From TrEMBL:
Superkingdom, natural source: Eukaryota
Record keyword rRNA-binding present: no
Keywords on record: Ligase
SUPFAM superfamilies: Ribonuclease H-like
Keyword Secreted: no
Lineage of origin: Eukaryota, Metazoa, Ecdysozoa, Arthropoda, Hexapoda
Source species of the chain: Aphis craccivora
A GO MF term: ligase activity
Signal peptide: none
Protein name: E3 SUMO-protein ligase KIAA1586-like
InterPro entries on file: RNaseH-like_sf
């Protein structure tokens, strides 16, 4: 038949093994992608997640994933679900270790470089993670890192150093959000973007607002509509009372004397009126 070659390829054990390998890898990458798109994702969390995903994918070299394990079982029985498998020697399977190594190398390229200002900023932010602290911490621990952060982002140095010392003395507190003096640092860590997800969401909202039927919207109106759409409350929590009262007191009715009257020209005034009478 016309698609017999395609049918044989899809029913081969080589195709099944390749598909299972890619499914295992893509599943881990998809989970990473969803995590990086979260609005509360910080730069430090993103770096940890990417490195963790790299380790998970590397482990697939020695420990088969769920999909690949199922494919291996199907190879032994030469049947997958209801499909009878065949051995097509013309098809060469993907080199498993080489494929995983290539994926890992590409993920490593997405990490912050080992040299440069970005790496220094990331290492300075890690000073607030008590899991990375030594067993014995002095009261002036992390002063150099905090000074670099304050100089780089124009933050009050004295206030931040005071908050850091409070953070060091409070052994039971692992959250800098509970220390008022470190609020600026906390906002900074949450503000630095780790992906372009927010930017892409903004473009999607803009495309939904500025359509072909609403192409004459001014930039200011588009901006206001986008702000309400992205940051506004849900409809069930919005109280329109103040806006309705404001509109009732300031709007102009059609019967208002100050309103401009519509020019209702008669049909006889149109230059084509005589032509219409001939039709």
């Amino acid at each position: 038949s016309k698609y017999s070659g395609l049918s044989k390829r899809l029913g081969s054990i080589q195709f099944l093994l390749d598909l299972a390998l890619m499914c295992d890898v893509l599943f881990e990458i998809s989970q990473l992608s969803l995590d990086l798109q979260k609005q509360d994702m910080s730069l430090l969390q993103a770096d940890v997640l990417i490195r963790r995903t790299i380790r998970v994918i590397e482990s697939l070299k020695t420990m088969n994933g769920n999909y690949f394990s199922e494919a291996v079982k199907a190879k032994e029985k030469m049947i997958f679900k209801t499909v009878v498998l065949s051995n097509n020697e013309k098809i060469t399977c993907i080199n498993k270790n080489q494929f995983i190594t290539s994926v890992v190398n590409n993920l490593n390229m997405r990490l912050i470089p080992n040299e440069g200002e970005e790496k220094i900023i990331l290492e300075d932010f890690q000073i607030f993670d008590k899991k990375l602290w030594p067993s014995e911490v002095e009261i002036r621990f992390g002063e150099k890192e905090i000074q670099r952060i304050c100089d780089r982002f124009c933050i009050n140095k004295v206030k931040t150093l005071k908050g850091m010392r409070i953070y060091i003395d409070d052994n039971d507190n692992n959250d800098i959000t509970l220390i008022e003096e470190l609020n600026d640092i906390n906002i900074l860590i949450k503000t630095l973007p780790c992906s372009t997800a927010e930017c892409e969401r903004g473009f999607s909202v803009m495309n939904n607002i500025c359509t072909d039927l609403r192409s004459r919207l001014l930039i200011n109106n588009i901006s206001n509509s986008m702000f309400i759409n992205i940051n506004g409350p849900p409809l069930q929590r919005w109280n329109p009372r103040d806006y309705v009262e404001s509109w009732l007191t300031s709007h102009r009715d059609a019967d208002d004397n100050k309103s401009r009257k519509v020019n209702t020209s008669t049909a006889t005034e149109d230059p084509k009126y005589k032509l219409w009478q001939l039709l």
